[in-house]
Structures are given as C-alpha cells and as structure tokens.
Amino acid sequence: MSLYGRENDKLFHVLVSKEYEQNRDFYFPYSDDEYIKSELELSEIPFVRLNNFLKDTNTLSYEDAVSKVQKKIEPLKLIIDLDNKKIFINENIVCMPPLLFCFYVYFAILKKEGNGKINWQTIEINQIIKLYEKLYNKQLEKNNFDDISYFLEKKSRINKIIKQEILKDNDIFLIKINGKRPSSTYEIGIEKQNIIIKGGL
Do the domain assignments include residue 108? Predict the structure, then answer.
C-alpha cells in the first residue's frame, strides 16, 4: 500500500456503531432505513507514500518496484575501490586523475577513521605521496604541496569532477570547508558509516 501511495492519497480506519460491527447485512451508503441511526467514524491513518519514487515505472513488477524504492531510501554510499582506482557514488562511477584520486582517498580515510576535519596546514603530505606511490607504483615529487593555493586548486578540481559525474548536486560527497580562514577545516561531508573502502594499501 505504501509502495503505490500517491501524494494526495489518504488512508482511513472506518468504525461503525457497536451494534452493527458484526452485522454482515450492514452496508454504506445505507440501503435500508433500519441503519439510518448508525454512526460512522473515520480516523485518518498516517502512512508513508512512496509512489513518487516510481514515476514513469508503473509497469515494474512488485519485486522490481520494491528494489527500486529501497535503493532510493537507503543512505547514500561512498565506495572507494583502491585496486581499480575507482570511486562509486551509489550506482555512479567517478574516475579521477591519479593525484586527485589520492587526495580524495586521503580525506575519505580520515573521515572513516573519525578524524575528518583537518586544517590544510596539518595535511599529512607524506601520506598522500605514500598512497600515490603504493597505488600507482610511481615516484611523486612534493612540489608545491605546502602551498594553500595548490591544495585549494586540487580540492576545486575534485569537487568539479564529482558534480559532473553524479549529474546532481549531492554536497555530502564534496570536500567542504568549515569556518573561516585561517582556522577553517576541510572534510568530506558524508557520514563515516556510509564510507566503504575496498582493497589493500
């Protein structure tokens, strides 16, 4: 019932006068003057309407409809596949250049471990370099890692790729800023329990 409930649908519990509760001949609208004195009480029952999740898919089987709605109401997941260097945001695959991928993985690991908010000056550059060299088997020079403009440029590119790939604005997957400089911190918005990291380092 909830599965196909539309926005304006209502659910009522109908009560009749006690003397008519077990009367199988009772019918509404009344067909006999005998029932004119009976009373009906309507109690609206709140219920979840899920049909909006099934727009243009009314031909789905019941099992497919349940599966589709379940995916819509489940918490959004961030899955990082280290072995294949891919990021999955629900059913969307997000691919990034190697260095940006390592930056994003670094922030995901921090959030997963409960240390999500970090000031750019406390970013462990060596951890990002180590991650890059481990995943891609290449040497990486430190270059301008300790320059805030370098970090902000990487953050901006990462967020732009995510916005383009998932085709809608889900800010929880972006690297967001908290507070004002110079004390501002950065983190991935998604809750740590919804981050899954696969593969070994």
Answer: yes
Q: Strands 185-188, 92-94: parallel, antiparallel or unpaired by DSSP?
A: unpaired
Q: Is the Cβ–Cβ distance between 54 and 8 less than 8 Å?
A: no
On whether both 117 and 191 belong to a single domain, the answer is yes
Please compute the mean of the pLDDT values over residues 130-142 and round it to a whole number. Answer: 85
Token pair in block for residue 20: 């008519």
Residues 83 and 179 in one domain: yes
pLDDT of residue 157: 94
- pTM of the predicted model over 0.70: no
Q: Are residues 57 and 150 in the same domain?
A: no
Beta strands in the chain (DSSP E): 12-16, 40-44, 78-81, 86-89, 92-94, 175-178, 185-188, 195-198
How many structural domains is the chain composed of? Answer: 2
Q: How far is CA 70 from each of CA 4, 6, 15, rounded to the nearest angstrom?
A: 13, 17, 34
What range defines the domain where residue 55 resides?
11-73
Of all residues in the chain, what percent are helix, strand and coil, respectively (each to 5)? 40, 15, 45
Residue 165 CA neighbour count, 13 Å, CB half: 19
